[in-house]
Write a structure and sequence with these properties.
This protein has 219 residues and is an alpha/beta fold. It has 6 helices and 11 strands. Helix 5 packs parallel to helix 6.
Length: 219
């Protein structure tokens, strides 16, 4: 069995994140001085949940990048079979577990590790949500590695994959990955109303896409 390892750049990145305190306030989650997730994203995450899980009876769901727990909060409003989360920042994971995860009416497990070091079972998830903070310059390469090594392997046939995407278009690198590794995919636009935008908004846009990619094979 091959031992999983992190590259040096990823090790430094995770160490730097873990060295910063995680704080939840009225607007959202800060790691150190930077806001990384907002309560105002609830409607966006609700649509992710709806499009990822519609048509599944008690789906098994994996979330990579737990953060504020907004996605999990929306997931709690429907019946699920199980919930698995990966969150490498211990403080973030603890707060989300206390606020959200322990209230889920389904078996739940949280891995406090980078996703690259977590061994997940093959072919058990109906839906996967991916939303991480990669090292600078590694967003697309990490995305590709996750899709190839985790998402496609861990989804059941007919299972769905989505990821957080700010902006109105998906770049060619990610489009190519989706085209190559999924039977089909589409992206649904959503705009955050100006009046809902937090004062400390850090995302590059109020425009979002909700990508939904489906693994080939019959359910």
């Amino acid at each position: 069995m091959t031992t999983k390892t992190l590259s040096e750049v990823h090790q430094r990145h995770i160490a730097a994140l873990r060295d910063q305190p995680a704080v939840v306030d009225s607007e959202g989650l800060r790691i150190g001085s930077q806001y990384v997730m907002f309560f105002a994203e609830a409607e966006l995450m609700r649509e992710h949940v709806t499009r990822l899980t519609e048509g599944f009876a008690r789906p098994n769901v994996l979330e990579v990048g737990l953060g504020l727990g907004v996605f999990a909060t929306q997931l709690s409003k429907r019946e699920i079979g199980s919930y698995t989360a990966i969150e490498p920042h211990p403080g973030v994971a603890l707060m989300a577990r206390t606020r959200v995860i322990d209230t889920l009416d389904a078996p739940a497990r949280v891995y406090i590790d980078p996703w690259q070091l977590v061994t997940l079972p093959t072919g058990v998830f109906d839906a996967i949500m991916y939303d991480t903070w990669p090292p600078d310059g590694h967003a697309d390469s990490d995305f590709t590695e996750f899709v190839v090594d985790v998402a496609v392997r861990c989804l059941r046939p007919g299972g769905r994959f989505s990821f957080f995407h700010s902006g109105t278009s998906i770049g060619p690198a990610r489009r190519n990955v989706l085209d190559r590794h999924f039977a089909e995919w589409t992206a649904y636009p959503r705009t955050m109303p100006a009046e809902q935008t937090p004062h400390h908004w850090t995302k590059p846009s109020r425009e979002f896409l909700i990508p939904i990619a489906t693994k080939g094979g019959a359910r």
